[in-house]
């Protein structure tokens, strides 16, 4: 009988588990030293090795001939655990056995000595599904189990596990496996199975698996049914990635503000019995891909798509701004909720497309006068005619504009305003590197956008010179981003600063003042060298 690749190539020792070396090395050392825990908690996304490591632990602690913390896989104990004939290792699906009666039965059995193995091992998969009563029944024995019992709990949703469970277990977090690591493993397995797998195809399979080795092997198994020669085209067809052109067509219509074209594309999809809820979900994913293309330096590993799709996204994102992308995602997510509650799903999606195709609406009447005033003040600030901060401007309107004042320009005899060209002087902030390090732990996304930035001080305002569009967007729209940057500055300086963008046309960088008179400096230097100097007090001449 044919055995699926993910079962056939499931790791049997810790050394075969890829991408989780930070966990397997620790477990190996614990088993080798005989200092393993009575309760483990494994958390992470699907297919990253939680159940695999659980079974390897069960074999390793019971194997009579362990090899450097790994089970030998040759003795009767190891073989019996692999084929399920040894009943001392029990794997329980907590999703379907989550009642208090199930846990009470487990507690009663746990006190009996193992029949064959040295330890009785209980593996509870998806432990977050246990009911409240089941958790309470498990707590006491989990904290102080019999010496011959080991518990291994696994979950994909650690936030649902109660703190009382977490405090009783040794926790290990399984990370998503990197695409390159998965691709290398797939190439090795394909070679052993007699498949011809190209490197590009292996990398595409790895990206589509979203960091899970089991999903990658399952997709490779599916691709193998198309033939032994597996190419990018094979993976595209097997994964169902073909036929995504309608998403690009809809996005093109939105970017070009063409609602007629967008509705025609939608009509063609409707003739093919499209599911509008699914279409809206896919369209959100498409705009998410555009957002990543706009903001991430190397987005290929974060986007599931063929190389042709990635290139198409790179071209399409050139015609749209980041605020427009974020606005589209917000609108489409709102539409998804509406579609789930209405019988007129097509109409709801059509309305969303028309809104997306609309150009930015005009400003409300009450804002027009205020906008004109801001524009005049900005022009005056650019000419050096004002210098005090806009303290009275509403938050979100003046935003982080440079400091200005209400000082009026001088009027000449002819009545015309006298033009000045003096810019506000600012001082370079030499502790900016320390601020960025503080920001890195507070807001990783903002830190990534500000890696190449610098800052200047103007009174109580910190002016940031950063060309990244994401930084400017976050500074305008995200209160959390501004607060994290202010907190980072405060952690370094101990002072609270206002924030604003640095504009070289509006500010002049002050040269550092040494505070030393040139003549006094010369006398000091001569004195340090031991050169006698006489000064003529009347003329100020020096002689040696």
Summarize the structure.
This protein has 544 residues and is of the alpha/beta class. Helix content is 49%, strand content 11%.
Give an overview of the whole structure.
Mean pLDDT is 82; it is low at 387-421. The protein has 5 domains: 5-174, P-loop containing nucleotide triphosphate hydrolases (Rossmann fold); 179-238, Helicase, Ruva Protein, domain 3; 245-357, Up-down Bundle (Zinc Finger, Delta Prime, domain 3); 424-509, GMP Synthetase, Chain A, domain 3, CATH 3.30.300; 517-544, no CATH class. The chain is globular and about 90 Å long. The longest helix has 20 residues, at 276-295. Helix 5 packs parallel to helix 6. Strand 9 (454-458) and strand 10 (461-465) form a beta hairpin. Helices cover 49% and strands 11% of the residues. By secondary structure, it is α/β, with parallel strands linked by helices. The protein has a 5-stranded parallel beta sheet with strand order 2-3-4-1-5, with helices on one face. Strands 11-10-9-8-12 form a 5-stranded mixed beta sheet, with no helix packed on it. Strands 6-7 form a two-stranded parallel ribbon. It is built from 23 helices and 14 strands. The chain starts with a helix and ends with a strand.
């Amino acid at each position: 009988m044919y055995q699926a690749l993910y079962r056939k190539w499931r790791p049997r020792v810790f050394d075969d588990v890829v991408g989780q070396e930070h966990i397997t090395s620790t477990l190996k050392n614990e088993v080798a030293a005989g200092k393993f825990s009575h309760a483990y908690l494994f958390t992470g996304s699907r297919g990253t090795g939680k159940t695999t490591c659980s079974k390897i632990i069960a074999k390793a602690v019971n194997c009579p001939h362990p090899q450097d913390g790994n089970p030998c896989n040759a003795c009767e104990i190891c073989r019996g655990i692999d084929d399920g004939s040894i009943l001392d290792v029990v794997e329980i699906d907590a999703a379907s056995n989550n009642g208090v009666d199930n846990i009470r039965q487990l507690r009663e059995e746990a006190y009996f000595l193992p029949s064959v193995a040295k330890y009785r091992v209980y593996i509870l998969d998806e432990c977050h599904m246990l009911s409240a009563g089941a958790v309470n029944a498990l707590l006491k024995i989990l904290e102080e189990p019999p010496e011959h019992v080991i518990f291994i709990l696994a979950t994909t949703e650690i936030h649902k596990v109660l703190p009382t469970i977490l405090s009783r277990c040794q926790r290990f977090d399984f990370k998503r496996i990197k695409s390159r690591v998965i691709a290398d493993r797939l190439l090795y397995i394909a070679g052993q199975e007699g498949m011809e797998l190209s490197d590009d195809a292996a990398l595409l399979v790895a990206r589509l698996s979203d960091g899970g080795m089991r999903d990658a092997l399952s997709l490779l198994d599916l691709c193998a049914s198309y033939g032994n020669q597996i190419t990018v085209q094979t993976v595209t067809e097997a994964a169902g990635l073909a036929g995504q052109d309608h998403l690009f067509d809809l996005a093109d219509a939105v970017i070009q503000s063409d609602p007629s074209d967008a509705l025609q594309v939608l009509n063609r999809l409707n003739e093919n019995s499209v599911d509008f809820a699914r279409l809206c979900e896919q369209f959100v994913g498409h705009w998410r891909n555009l957002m990543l293309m706009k903001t991430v330096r190397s987005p290929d590993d974060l986007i599931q798509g063929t190389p042709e799709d990635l290139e198409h996204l790179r071209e399409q994102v050139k015609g749209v701004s980041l605020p427009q992308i974020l606005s589209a995602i917000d609108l489409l997510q709102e539409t998804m909720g509406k579609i789930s509650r209405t019988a007129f799903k097509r109409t709801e999606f059509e309305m969303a497309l028309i809104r997306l195709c609309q150009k930015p609406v005009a400003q409300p009447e009450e804002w027009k006068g205020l906008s004109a005033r801001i524009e005049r003040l900005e022009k005056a600030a650019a000419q050096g005619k004002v210098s005090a901060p806009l303290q009275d401007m509403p938050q979100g309107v003046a935003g982080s504009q440079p400091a200005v004042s209400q000082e009026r320009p001088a009027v000449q005899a002819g009545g015309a305003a006298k033009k000045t060209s003096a810019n506000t002087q600012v001082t370079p902030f030499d502790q900016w590197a320390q601020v960025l390090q503080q920001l890195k732990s507070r807001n990783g996304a903002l830190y990534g956008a500000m890696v190449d930035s610098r800052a200047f001080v103007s009174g109580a305002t910190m002016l940031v010179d950063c060309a990244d569009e994401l930084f400017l967007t976050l500074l305008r729209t995200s209160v959390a981003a501004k607060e994290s940057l202010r907190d980072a500055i405060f952690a370094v300086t101990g002072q609270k600063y206002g924030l604003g963008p640095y504009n070289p046309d509006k500010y002049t960088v002050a040269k550092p003042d040494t505070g030393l008179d040139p003549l006094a400096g010369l006398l000091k230097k001569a004195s340090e060298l031991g050169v006698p100097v006489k000064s003529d007090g009347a003329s100020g001449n020096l002689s040696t």
